[in-house]
Amino acid sequence: MGLQPSLRRVLVGVVLLTIATAIWLAVSHAGEHPAGPVSTGPSPELPKPYSGWPPTLNFSRAEPWPESSGPKAPADFRVTRFATNLDHPRWLYLLPNGDILVAESSTVRKEPTSLNERIGFWLQRRAGVIKPSANRITLLRDPTGDGVVTYRGTFCTGLDQPFGMVLVGNTLYIAATGGVWRFPYHDGDLTVEGKGEKILDLPIGGYNNHWTRNIVVNPEHTKLYISVGSGSNDGEHGIDNEFHRANILEANLDGSGLRVFASGMRNPVGMAWAPATDTLWTVVNERDMMGNDLVPDYLTHVHEGALYGWPYSYWGKYPDPGVQDSFGQHIDPATTIKRPDLVAASIAPDYSLGAHVAPLGLTFYSADSFPSHYRGGVFVGEHGSWNRKPFSGYKVVFIPFRDGLPDGPPEDFLTGFMPPERDGIAYGRPVGIIVDMVGALLVADDTGNMIWRVSVNR
To answer: How far, in Å, are 109, 194, 324, 456 from residue 290 at the CA level?
Structure first.
């Protein structure tokens, strides 16, 4: 008895996709160029852009953490599982009473239509990037700060890909992919009241993972700052597609007065105010498809009104060599965005984290539980590369500060997300980072579906 025609078509499609993917991966690795040493710091060495094709595609493959293992921290620190069995936890927020809010959201893709899209869809699903989004914020309560969660419950649902959260007085702001919402909040609330009020519309859709919308408030509690990533890799859909994108936006607490605070930042995500200052810092994911060692992702303090280059230039005044799409194919030169005046106006960021590390989480350590070396410095969650060989990122790094600026190379702080003995396997990928009420570090691991807690051994 023969197969039904519809089933036969599905099976043929699966076979062809498998063959095409294998060929694509073999060809992409055959065309790669050797990576140089990772260049970090305020003055990184920048190689020439790689113009070859096809690009390097080097996706990790997600596997669950073994029951008895976890990330590794420096000696004298202890790593424990703070919360498990979450659904792609991306971002964390500490409420004044010590409760932890966890945004559980995922990248959602439209069904692929082209062969390139199908290959990319398969690779990203295997890496644990694409899955149905829980669209939930969960509340965790650890009343004594000993790392034991005594209450866990759903705090908020109904928003599309919620991410950033910030409390101002009795108002909780939540940045979802298409807008900013506000809800009344009172100390100890276990859920939000009502459906909230939308105070801002934000652009939706776009390249790769650029749906994340983070939000912070200034030290005076008078202005909101919202990070919005680009809608493309390199401006390949035209600059009109990038309205209010690749920016940090500023608005009043009621959503009025929206303006661009800083621009040309391809995908800013983590934002934080340096302790006891009015200086905003951010980490930014730079463009792909220019080589293993370009373009450096970075940490920078944010100059009001500054242009950081994208998509006209990178690392200040290095002109972009030409618009490329998400598979590294050059677009028709007629569509390339050329603005030498904006290249000349662009400024360089403060500090290179290395190419393709995908920095997302950012927090200053202002508690006193950790040794003095860590106080005043920043922790960065590096989600990890897919456009570089060898891999980069997949860890939490620490950067010491002195006199308000980074001072020294990034230091590995939480590693082991990608075990060296298992090539290409990732047990987890760090994202959001916060300091809890007793000074321990909490790290959201979206692929591992858990939150890790790092404390000092006593």
So the answer is: 24, 47, 9, 41
CATH superfamily placement of domain 70-111+134-456:
TolB, C-terminal domain (2.120.10.30)
Going from N- to C-terminal start, the domains of the chain cover 70-111+134-456
pLDDT at 37 over 80: no
The candidate with the shortest Cα–Cα distance to 382, out of 411, 347, 357, is 357
Rounded Cα–Cα distance for residues 283 and 289 (Å): 20
Q: Which two tokens stand for residue 287?
A: 């463009």
**Can you tell me the distance from the alpha carbon of 441 to that of 268, in angstroms, rounded to the nearest whole number?**
22
pTM over 0.85: yes
**pLDDT 10s digits, 370-395:** 999 999 999 999 999 998 999 999 99
* Cβ pair 319, 49 in contact under 8 A: no
CB within 8 A of 340, min separation 6: which ones? 319
Q: How far is it, in rounded angstroms, from Cα 288 to Cα 108? A: 20
* pLDDT tens per residue, range 270-286: 999 999 899 999 999 99
pLDDT tens, position by position, 282-309: 999 999 988 999 999 999 999 999 999 9
Angle between helices 115-126 and 5-30 (to 10 degrees): 80
- Region of poorest pLDDT, from 107-116, 172-181, 362-371: 107-116
